[in-house]
Fold this sequence. Notes:
Helices cover 63% and strands 0% of the residues. It is mainly alpha-helical and 169 residues long. α2 runs antiparallel to α3 (73-88), α2 packs across α6 and α4 packs across α5. The longest helix has 22 residues, at 3-24. The chain is globular and about 55 Å long.
Amino acid sequence: MSDNQKLKQKKDIDSFKKAFYENYGIKVYVYSPTQKKKIIPIKVFHDSALAALHEAIPGYSCVKSLHDRTRYRDYMVYVQSMSYLAFKGGHSKSSIGKYLKRTHATIINSCNMVENGFFTKDKTILIAYNNTLKKLEEYVGTISENDEGKNDTKPKSNPIWDETRGIVA
């Protein structure tokens, strides 16, 4: 596929996704066979964590991005949860850090903080993680692990028909 065809395909997919969202209020993700890695984009993790933050703590509704730097714990746990989920979703710590305008060491610390929060059952981290995960599932939905289709043209046998055929014969 040439670059022009790939560009046209991407433009068509983007316009379809936009129209589908405007008509039904549901975000759609399209994976083309040419994509090598099938991972959720970091922006989706970001948007899910931001929506969870806005829903859980309405005082942060003025925050438009998780790129802001602040040391308020109730804000930071959502950034950390987003970083942890994005890392578990297949992104590298460097790419997450680059997206959030932080270093990879900050992302390593974020992942460690979330894992430690799981171990100690820290309510703030657990609530932020669960809220972010819930928003992520609403945002993305379920993505099948086995998304490869099969060309299976053989008819399946029907046990009821086989039994009936045995009785008739």
